[in-house]
């Protein structure tokens, strides 16, 4: 995967996503960093309300350097990196 667009390096992309407690995800990025993303703030938005179902939340998949769920629910990889905290 080419990590440069218009001569500018892309922020890190997600390689793995593991659901952990309290609607958080342990993410591993392609730069080797492991970070925790708290998805709870998203649950108040209509598009993300299906994630309130814990089983559905745990069905997260990684695709195209980001995360996604069924029903076309996904999240920007750049924002995932910026809003997550290093482990």
Which SSEs are present, and which pair or pack?
Blueprint: E1 4-5, E2 8-9, E3 14-20, E4 24-29, E5 34-38, H1 54-57, E6 61-63, E7 66-69, E8 73-75, H2 77-83, E9 85-86
Antiparallel strand pairs: 1-2, 3-4, 4-5, 5-9, 6-7, 7-8
Please name the defining characteristics of this protein:
87 residues, mainly beta, NE0471 N-terminal domain-like, four-stranded antiparallel beta sheet, 13% helix, 39% strand, globular
The stretches of 5 or more residues where confidence is low (pLDDT under 50) are: none
The proportion of strand residues reads 35-45%
The rough form would be described as: globular
Number of domain units = 1
Q: Count all strands and give the number.
A: 9
Q: Compute the gyration radius: what is it?
A: 13 Å
* Largest beta-sheet characterization: 4 strands, antiparallel
Q: What is the third-level CATH name, the topology?
A: NE0471 N-terminal domain-like
Gross CATH architecture:
2-Layer Sandwich
- The neighbouring-strand order within the major sheet is 3-4-5-9
Helix share, percent: 10-25%
Mean pLDDT over the full residue set: 93
Number of helices: 2
Query: Helices and strands, in N-to-C order?
Result: EEEEEHEEEHE
The N- and C-terminal alpha carbons lie at a distance of: 25 Å
CATH top level label: Alpha Beta
Name the CATH homologous superfamily. NE0471-like N-terminal domain
TL;DR of this structure?
By secondary structure, this protein is mainly β. It has helices at 54-57, 77-83; strands at 4-5, 8-9, 14-20, 24-29, 34-38, 61-63, 66-69, 73-75, 85-86.
């Amino acid at each position: 995967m080419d990590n440069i667009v218009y001569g500018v390096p892309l922020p890190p992309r997600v390689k793995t996503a593991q659901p952990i407690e309290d609607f958080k995800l342990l993410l591993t990025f392609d730069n080797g960093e492991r970070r925790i993303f708290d998805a709870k703030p998203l649950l108040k938005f209509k598009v993300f309300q299906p994630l309130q179902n814990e089983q559905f939340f745990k069905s997260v998949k990684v695709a195209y350097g980001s995360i996604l769920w069924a029903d076309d629910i996904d999240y920007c990889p750049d924002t995932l990196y910026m809003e997550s905290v290093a482990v």
